[in-house]
Automatic annotation (TrEMBL):
It catalyses: ATP + protein L-histidine = ADP + protein N-phospho-L-histidine. PROSITE patterns: HIS_KIN (PS50109), PAS (PS50112), RESPONSE_REGULATORY (PS50110). InterPro entries: CheY-like_superfamily (IPR011006), HATPase_C_sf (IPR036890), HATPase_dom (IPR003594), His_kinase_dom (IPR005467), HisK_dim/P_dom (IPR003661), HisK_dim/P_sf (IPR036097), PAS (IPR000014), PAS-like_dom_sf (IPR035965). Residues 288-503 form the Histidine kinase domain. Residues 123-150 form a coiled coil. The modification 4-aspartylphosphate is found at D57. This is histidine kinase. The lineage of its organism: Bacteria, Pseudomonadati, Pseudomonadota, Gammaproteobacteria, Cellvibrionales. CDD domains: HisKA (cd00082), PAS (cd00130), REC_PA4781-like (cd19920). Signal peptide: none annotated.
Length: 506
């Protein structure tokens, strides 16, 4: 290691006396001294020893001082050696030439020892300061680069003409542009915002007129053609040009989307819950009505029986007529009562209990319930039950609800289309599933409805709630089954409901 103040100085002069004087002048001043007596050996020593400074005589035989200087300056290894010319030539042209080719100073011969020493000291000191400054500069630059490369934002430095002057690693990663390719290019030439003339215009205003720029969401084209989503800000620099910052918001956008989806799903569930609450309130009301109506109906049939007994003593002809009427009253009352019974069992809260049932039997009950609607709408329903239909394991009341809903929809559509073809309820099976189809020849489904058929509150009916199919789907899926819609080639709609077959061993 060189000691502080221990820089090497090369003394070059073809005149040994001069060399000696120089030696004496600088000896003891703390520098290590080297000497050369011509240009060639000066070059050789300079290259090998790399002195901090050379006191270089201009007038030498062979290679003169100017040439030595030029050759040293043109070699990067020796270019930063400080050169002070010594010469008896005092014309200003030589001085200017010396300084022009890279010398820092010029001492006229004959020289004063004090002057030589003072100038050498000054220039050595200057060189030290310069080196220190360069080192600090490069440290700061490294530090800058490290910071820029550590940040999560892509940063472009732009000059006043909009050309990229610098960029960090993240800017490369986001845009696919390598620093070596992008630097020197106009930023709008990188095609980061293809077709977005307004954005390219804003970038020009930013660089040339210092109009700052902020966008919460821009699409940036990666060099390979993919698109990234980013927030962008551009700020003018005090010294001219601008800084453009891109922040990748892809992940943030994805999170936002997931959040919105979760919110949507929550809303759906909330609506579903509200629906179920309404259903159960409706169910309770129906149960109450059934209870209230059932009592007078029982009374009617009891009175009919009593009246029948009382007329036993009537004359034959009258008795036969009255008996017939009374029998009809009794039959009708019992029929009404049976409808009420079925309604009560239909609306009773699902117990959640599953039993092994035959779809054919279940659908027969559903058709009896639908009879009331059938009378009102004029649409008929027929059941085509498959023989040997395997059983399924289900909550009977819930599956009745599903089937009744499908049959009612089919009847409404049939009536609305003024079709006289009956709604068909057809059971079918294979080794794995048992199911039923509800087929009608009514209006069929409009494409808008079909698109979101099983979503809640989708309805084409005035006063319709649009929740029947959504609830039906939840029920069927909870049974491990499937419900779907098909077009009826004969016009109208077909809904298929399928359940896993129940095996004895299960
Ligand atoms: P709602 O009957 O209260 O409208 P649904 O969920 O049961 O509710 O039905 C939703 C919509 O699906 C109906 O409004 C109707 O447009 C359509 N739809 C259901 N079944 C049929 C069918 N068999 N034929 C034609 N359209 C139907």
């Amino acid at each position: 290691m060189r000691e502080r103040g221990g820089e090497q100085i090369l003394l070059v002069d073809d005149n040994p006396t001069n060399l000696q004087v120089l030696f004496k002048t600088l000896e003891g001043s703390g520098y290590r001294l080297l000497a050369a007596r011509d240009g060639e050996s000066a070059l050789y020593t300079a290259k090998r020893a790399r002195p901090a400074l050379i006191l270089l005589d201009v007038m030498m035989p062979g290679m003169d001082g100017f040439e030595v200087c030029e050759r040293l300056k043109s070699d990067p290894e020796t270019a930063d050696i400080v050169i002070i010319f010594l010469s008896a030539l005092t014309d200003s042209q030589s001085k200017v030439h010396g300084l022009a080719i890279g010398g820092v100073d010029y001492i006229a011969k004959p020289f004063q020892a004090d002057e030589v020493l003072a100038r050498v000291r000054t220039h050595i000191k200057l060189q030290r300061l310069e080196r220190e400054l360069a080192r600090r500069n490069s440290e700061l630059e490294d530090e800058n680069r490290r910071i820029l490369n550590a940040v999560d934002e892509g940063i472009f430095g732009l000059d006043i003409a909009g050309r990229v002057s610098s960029m960090n690693a993240r800017a490369s990663a986001l845009t696919g542009w390598r620093q070596s390719d992008a630097v020197g290019e106009e930023v709008w030439g990188l095609n980061l915002f293809p077709g977005d003339d307004a954005m390219n215009e804003s970038l020009k205003l930013l660089c040339k007129a210092g109009v700052s720029l902020r966008k919460n969401h821009v699409k940036v084209r990666h060099r390979e053609g993919t698109v990234i989503h980013a927030a962008l800000s551009g700020s003018a620099r005090a010294e001219g040009g601008a800084v453009l910052v891109l922040r990748d918001i892809g992940e943030w956008l994805a999170n936002q989307k997931a959040l919105e989806e979760a919110r949507g799903e929550m809303d759906k569930q909330r609506q579903h819950l509200a629906h179920i609450e309404r259903l159960s309130t409706g169910g309770e009301m129906a149960a109450g009505i059934a209870h209230e109506v059932n009592q007078p109906l029982t009374a009617v049939s009891n009175y009919a029986r009593v009246a029948q007994r009382l007329i036993a003593n009537f004359p034959e002809e009258q008795r036969a007529k009255l008996d017939d009427v009374m029998t009809k009253i009794g039959v009708q009352a019992e029929r009404a009562s049976a409808v009420i019974q079925r309604m009560r069992s239909y609306v009773k809260k699902p117990s959640g209990a599953k039993s092994v049932i035959s779809l054919n039997n279940l659908l027969e009950d559903v058709l009896s319930l639908a009879e009331v609607d059938s009378k009102m709408s004029g649409a008929r329903v027929v059941l085509k039950g498959a023989a040997d239909l395997p059983t399924i394991h289900c909550d009977e009341v819930q599956i009745q609800q599903v089937a009744l809903n499908l049959v009612r929809n089919a009847m409404e559509s049939t009536a609305a289309a003024n079709s006289n073809r009956p709604v068909e309820v057809i059971t079918y099976f294979n080794s794995k599933i048992a199911g039923f189809k509800v087929r009608d020849f009514g209006l069929g489904l409009s494409p808008e409805i079909e698109e979101q058929l099983f979503s809640p509150f989708v309805t084409s009916k005035e006063g319709g709630m649009g929740i029947g199919l959504s609830v039906s789907q939840s029920i069927v899926q909870a049974h491990g089954g499937d419900i779907r819609h098909e077009h009826n080639p004969g016009g109208g709609a077909v809904f298929c409901c399928e359940f896993p077959v129940y095996h004895e061993s299960e």
